[in-house]
Every structure is written in C-alpha cells, then in structure tokens.
UniProtKB/TrEMBL annotation:
PANTHER family: STAGE II SPORULATION PROTEIN E (PTHR43156:SF2), STAGE II SPORULATION PROTEIN E-RELATED (PTHR43156). This is Anti-sigma regulatory factor (Ser/Thr protein kinase)/PAS domain-containing protein. CDD domains: HATPase_RsbW-like, PAS. The keyword Hydrolase applies. InterPro entries: Bact_Sigma-Reg, GAF, GAF-like_dom_sf, HATPase_C_sf, HATPase_dom, PAS, PAS-assoc_C, PAS-like_dom_sf. It comes from the Bacteria. It holds the Pfam family SpoIIE. Keywords: Hydrolase. Residues 240-292 form the PAC domain.
Length: 816
C-alpha cells in the first residue's frame, strides 16, 4: 500500500512539475500574441478542465468581460461574455473578494446568475487574478468529482501565469501589433498593419479600411467560413481559428490562417473582433499538442452523431500522430461495437476482427483481448512500443506501437480508441498527456452522440410504425414507396402514403402531408391515414372520401391542417379519378417516355374550410404508364420555385427506366434535400391480362325470389362455360340470398364475377349488420347453418361496408 501511495504522489508531483515547466516555456516567448491562449490551454491538459477563460474589467470598470478562452464553447455551460462587477456571479465574487470560489452542480442550479438547464452536471471554479487590474480565471470540469487538490494547484499556477501576461484591453487608437487586426462590429471598419495588408497583396495607401475590401480578395469557396467569423451573432469567444485562401495576381491562391476572438465593448462601446492573420505555411509545422486538443474540442462541440464523433477523433489524431490505423468503439456490455475504422478496408485489420464482422463494422469481444479489458478496467491510457508482448488481436493493430485510450464519461467507460503504427513509433514525453486529454473529450462527446442516435432511432421507429409495413400486390399494377425522414432535428414529420385495394379491381393511392414537425403532426397523420382508408373501404367515390376526411379534421378542432392527393384507379379499364386537397398534382410518365404534370383541379387543404368542394379530375392510363405522387420535401428547396422542382421531377422521371420501380424511386430520392420529410409513391399500371366476367341481378322480394336467383346464376354459369362445382355455387347463392331477404329490408342485389377460375358471389343489402358465424348449433335449431355452409363451400368469404349497407361475398375456387 505504501508503494502505491508513493507512486501516486510521485505521479501527481510529476504533473505539477510538468505544468510549471510548460508555463515557464510559454512565458519566455513574451512577444507571441497567442501566449495567453497557450497559457490557458495548459489547464485543459494538466487540470482536466473542459473550459477555461479569463475575465478582465472592461473600459467602464463596471463589467468583467471575457477576453480569452480555451476548450469547448462556453454556451454549453450557460456562461456569458460579461458579468457586472457588483453582481453575485462567481466571477465577480472571486474578483471582489480576492479568493477562489468553487461551485458544484447543486450550487450552480440554485445560483441566479448561472441558473440554466444543463445538458449534464459540471463543476465550476473561479480564481482571482492579482495583476493588471485584477480579473478572474474561470474553469469548468465535467468530471463527477470536480477539481481535486492537484487540479486546483495546476489552476493556481495558470492563474499566476495569466496575471502577469494578460493583455490590457486594446485601445481604440494606435497601430495594431504585427499581424493583428481589430474589427468594429457596428461599422465594419478594420484597423490593420502594413504587414497584414502585404499578406493580402494590398497597398496601404489604397486600403479604405473596410472589411469588405479584404473579404473581396478571398477565394469565393472560403468566403462563407470567413463570414461566420466576422458575424458577431455566431461568434464563440476564444475558439475561432480557420485557414482560408486569398487570390494572387499570378500563381495559385495563398493560404492564410486567422485566429480571432470577440471582445464585448461594455456599456456604450461597440463589440470588437480582434485577432491575428499569418501565413499558414509558417505555422503548420508549429502546431502544438494543446492546439490539437482545442481543435478536437471545437469539432466535438458540433458533432451530433456517434459517427461524427469518430470522424472528429480520426481527423484530430491519425494524421497529426502519423498513425497507420485508428478505431473508435462503443462499449456495450462485454463487447466493443466499432463505429469508425480508418482506414475502412477489412483486410488491414486483425483476423479476429474480420471473423467477428457484423454488417458494416466489426463487433469485437473484449474477452478475446485481455490487455484491452485491463486498460478499460483501470481507465488509464496505455501505450505499448514496438515489440511489446500483446495478444494477436491487438498486436496486429499496431506492430510498431499501440495506444489504447479508454474513453471516460462520468463514472463509467463509454468506449475505447485504438491507435496503431506499422513502423516503430517514438512516443514523445507529452504524447500521453495529449492522448489522455483527447480521450476525455471524446468520451463525453460519445455519450452525448449516443443519446442523440438513440433518440433519432426512436423517432424513426415511431414514424415507420405510422406508415404501411408493406404495400399490397395489385392485379395489373406494381406499387413502390419510399420515405426519408428529415435530418434536421429529432421531431416527427407528418408525411404519409397508402395503397388501398378496393372491390371490383379498384385501388386507391393516397399521399399526404400534415403541417409541421411534431408529435402532434405525426399523431394527426395517423388519424388522417386511418380515416381515409375507412372512408375508401366503405365504397365512397374519391370526392366524398376526401370531403369526409375534411369534415372529420374540422370536427377535431386541431390547429394543424393537412394536404393530400387521392387517386382511384380502375385496373380493368385503365381509367382513374384524381382529387387534390391542397397537395401537389400527380406526375404521369407515359410508355413513350413523355412526362406530364396532371392538370387536376384542386381544393383547399383539409381542416381549413368546413363546406369545401373537392372536384374530381379524370386520368387516362395506357399500359406502362407510371404515376408519381410526392410530398413537397422532394421538390421544394429554399430559394427555388416549387414549379421548378416539379419540372425537375418530371424530367428525372422521363429519364428513368420504369422496368424496376424500386430503382426509379431510389434515383428520384438520390439528390433529395433532407431539410424536410420526403414521401414518394410510384405505381406502374400494366393492365390486367384477364378481364373478369361480370353479371348482376336485382332480387325482388317475392315468394320465388331465391328460385329466381338460382336460375339466373345457373344461366350465367352456363353462358360462361362453367360446368364444375355448379351445385356448390347454387347452394351458396341460395344461402346468401335467403339471409338477405330474411334479415334485412330494402333492395337486394346479386353480383357474379369470374376470373382465373375463381367465382365471386356478392349479395348487397341495405342493412349495416354483418352476419355472425354461430359458435355452436343445437339439433333443435331451425336456423344458423347458412353461414357454416357458405364457409364450408367457399375458399374465403367476408363482408364489406357499402354506402348505407353492406355486401356479403364468397369466393369459390372452381375445379378444386
């Protein structure tokens, strides 16, 4: 135990000594404009801080203004760019009292100046600065225990170093230092030196002092990133650094690097953006490990998904460290589910990993790599140089050197990062600190990204449950559908589609869109889809179906409205009726390749007007015609007219080969914008190979009605050449007609349909009550056997609602 304590004390002492050495090395370079920032970065490495900043009194002396920061964006913790000197903030209390102020999650939740709803718990520590007019050093830790004793010692060393190097607030007049600039955010006037103008190729005499003049010399592709820096509303203080190109009179563009920060002006003074611009070629070889940590923190702050986190880690570590391969994996139970491999080719990774391949990425068992399991249990970064005795699954990752970085997140391990070299790698003295700092940042980001991915998957699952699981097989037609959820945010969308088989070889195609993106929109979408299906199955014409859905939505008193397009196709005749309720018209592709946007008259959206008209427009479909129904997410983009989008859709549909509708749908969605949900329904009408034979008979309520129905059925079957199972058909006719005459009032109609040796007998009456199959029948019962006989003689039977009544039908397979 004594040895363990001694080793721990020695390690802590070494950390303090290394921090002192790093700060002394930075203090030597007094002329460096980045010395304050580099000093703060030591708190990220040696004190485990996630964010650190310097606040100094403003020009009016009433505010403590943020003048420099490092780490993740301050907005993640609700920190402001200035605090009143007389206020109750930790910054002000440390400045006035001259003593450190420390707060944990409980104190922060109750503290008025910092009250917020944090994404996670964090600890905050403010240390006073005793030089250059005072001020405060503010540090944030995301670790569950906060800053320990050694962390605080390192923070005190950083605060002492900052107190003697912190720059005074830049004055409004005078020449800026070499390579520096100062931009007034209210006027756009910029003060620069001759050396900076020389980088842009400008003559100081001709420069008009406007920032637009400098921006006009940049390469157009780099202008958006520069604009994000000079716009104050999007500025994160202390973490803006980017490279851009400026045009040259001859030769290729020149690469420059800008580092900037926003200085709040305080009461009565405008905010200013100050920083430096330098030739990028002179800085690339001088990037420090701490700068890499800061860049990784900036990248992880905007990483949304687990894949984004992996890509940011790879970009920050593999090339700068000269590594040959890097893997990032999530820890799930006893398995490492690898989310990012770089390079991605399976053959460059160990045989065990390839044997455990799961889809796109491997699923590696931790128990097969005890060295890795031990590193995860200890929670410390481990480095093995070339030739270290390791299990084969790890030795093949880094034969020239291997680094295993457990990714901590609070009091557990979120995963691991493996970095391997093929040739012997010389691990520098500061490389372990770099890897440890990167691992801590990546672990926290991985947990946040995993939560986002899980929520996004839940949203997608709920959306899929509200849409049809599969489309029905249609006689004489093929239907495919695609749905793409929006990638912007996590809210549910309201786009839907449906394909509804109807009697007499009709089919209803529906596509719609509920206003907005929310759980309410998705719920309303499900209700509208169910209502339209119910009204369609009842046998109403298209305009009545849409009209009923409109009245239903009005009665629901929802604040949302919906649009839809409804197309009823007669698969026997090749004709269709289209009804539009504020939705896009169908796009038709004819067999000769021509496309046409259907001229279908439209009505208002559903849920807007109670007494609305929804006119029906006819469509003629030749065999081979493709009907495309889409929501506006496929054709509408910001800044373009929706008619242009419809024309593009028609043009792309004309270029597609309709033989495989699945490929056509994928091609149409290939370049779809993802700012909105997208639903697409394609139907190719091929025509029915066999046309059914049909006959109808009105059954009069006379004593001989059943006999008349039987004789009509017999004559019809004889005319159709049916000679098999005639007696079975006549018995089914007798039972169904008798039930209708005995148990209902009003008119009764019999329809006979024959196709593919299947005869359909349908009896329609005016009663909505469906016949019920009896569970049991006693010997003394005088009725109730009719449905049992129909069930025994038919391949299938059922009932359909018909306007005001029902239809009882049975299908008999002839020649069984």
């Amino acid at each position: 135990m004594a040895n363990v304590v001694s080793e721990g004390a020695q390690e802590r002492g070494t950390r303090t000594l290394r921090a002192e050495g790093a700060l002394k090395a930075i203090a030597v370079d007094q002329e460096s404009p980045e010395r304050v920032h580099r000093t703060l970065e030591q708190a990220l490495v040696f004190a485990g801080a996630a964010f650190v900043a310097v606040y100094a009194p403003g020009q009016d002396g009433e505010l403590l203004c943020l003048v420099e920061s490092a780490g993740v964006p301050r907005t993640l913790y609700g920190l402001r760019d200035s605090y009143p000197c007389a206020g109750r903030s930790p910054v002000a209390e440390a400045h006035r009292g001259g003593r450190p102020v420390s707060m944990g999650p409980a104190e922060l939740a109750a503290h008025a100046p910092l009250r917020r709803v944090p994404s996670q718990d964090f600890h905050l520590m403010a240390l006073p600065l005793h030089g250059n007019g005072g001020g405060c050093l503010l540090a944030v830790s995301e670790r569950s225990a906060g800053f320990d004793t050694d962390d605080r010692t390192c923070l005190e060393l950083v605060s002492e170093a900052v107190a003697f190097t912190a720059p005074a607030a830049p004055a409004e007049g005078g020449d800026p230092p070499p390579g520096a600039f100062s931009l007034a955010m209210d006027t756009g006037r910029v003060r620069v030196g001759d050396d900076l103008l020389d980088l842009f190729g400008l003559d100081p005499v001709e420069f008009d002092g406007r920032v637009e003049t400098l921006l006009g010399l940049t390469v157009p592709e780099d202008l958006p990133s520069l604009m994000s820096v000079v716009e104050a509303d999007h500025m994160s203080i202390g973490d803006r650094e980017l490279e851009f190109r400026v045009l040259q009179p001859t030769g290729p563009p020149k690469w420059l690097r800008l580092s900037g920060r926003l200085l709040p002006g305080g009461e009565g003074h405008p905010a200013r953006l100050v920083g430096t611009v330098a030739d990028a070629s002179t800085l690339r070889s001088d990037v420090t490990d701490v700068a890499r940590v800061q860049r990784l923190a900036t990248a992880l702050a905007t990483a949304v998904t687990v894949r984004d986190v992996g890509d940011a880690v790879v970009a920050a570590l593999r090339r700068p460290l000269g590594a040959d391969r890097i893997a990032l994996a999530e820890l799930e139970s006893d398995r490492l589910v690898v989310t990012v491999l770089d390079p991605p080719e399976p053959e460059v990774w160990p045989e065990l990993w390839r044997a455990e391949w799961r889809g796109e990425w491997p699923d590696a068992p931790v128990r097969a790599m005890p060295t890795l399991a031990a590193a995860l249990r200890e929670g410390r970064a481990r480095i093995w140089p070339a030739g270290s005795p390791l299990e084969r699954a790890l030795a093949e990752v880094g034969p020239g050197g291997l680094a295993v970085l457990p990714l901590p997140a609070g009091n557990r391990m979120a995963g691991a990062c493996l970095i391997g070299w093929d040739t012997p790698h010389d691990f520098g003295t500061d490389e372990r600190a770099l890897l440890t700092a990167c691992a801590g940042l990546a672990g926290q980001a991985l947990v946040r990204a995993r939560a986002f991915d899980a929520e996004h998957e839940l949203v997608g699952m709920l959306q899929r449950q509200l849409l049809p699981r599969r489309l029905p097989r249609l006689p004489g037609a093929v239907a495919v559908a695609r749905y793409l959820p929006s990638t912007a945010g996590l809210e549910l969308g309201g786009d839907w589609y449906d394909v509804i088989p109807l009697p007499d070889h009709h089919v209803a195609l529906i596509i719609g869109d509920v206003q907005g993106h929310s759980a309410g929109a998705a719920t309303l979408m499900g209700q509208m889809r169910t209502a339209l299906r119910a009204y369609a199955v009842e046998g109403h014409p298209p305009d009545v179906v849409v009209g009923h859905a409109n009245r239903l939505l009005m009665d629901m008193e929802s604040d949302l409205f919906a649009t839809c397009a409804y197309v009823d196709i007669d698969l026997e005749e090749g004709s269709a009726w289209c009804v539009r309720a504020g939705h896009l018209p169908p796009v038709l592709r004819y067999p000769d390749g021509r496309t046409e946007i259907a001229e279908a008259e439209g009505g208002p959206p559903l849920g807007v007007i109670t007494q609305a008209d929804f006119p029906m427009s006819p469509l003629r479909l030749a065999p081979g015609t493709v009907i495309a129904l889409a929501t506006d997410g496929l054709v509408e983009t910001p800044g373009t007219d929706i008619d242009e989008g419809m024309a593009r859709l028609a043009g792309r549909l004309a270029d597609a080969a309709p033989a495989d509708l699945g490929l056509v749908a994928d091609a149409l969605l290939g370049n779809a914008p993802r700012s909105d949900d997208v639903a697409l329904l394609l139907v190719r009408y091929d025509g029915m190979d066999l046309r059914p034979l049909r006959e109808s008979w009105t059954v009069w309520r006379v004593p001989q009605a059943v006999g008349h129905a039987r004789r009509f059925a017999r004559r019809t079957l004889r005319a159709w050449g049916v000679t098999e199972d005639v007696d079975a058909v006549l018995l089914v006719v007798s039972e169904l007609v008798t039930n209708a005459l005995v148990h209902t009032d009003g008119q009764v109609r019999m329809d006979l349909t024959l196709i593919n040796n299947r005869l359909r007998v349908a009896i329609a009456d005016a009663s909505p009550r469906s016949p019920v199959r009896p569970a049991s029948i006693s010997w003394e019962a005088t009725g109730g056997r009719g449905i049992l006989l129909v069930e025994a003689l038919s391949a299938t039977w059922g009932t359909l609602p018909v306007s005001g009544g029902k239809q009882v039908w049975a299908e008999i397979a002839l020649g069984r």
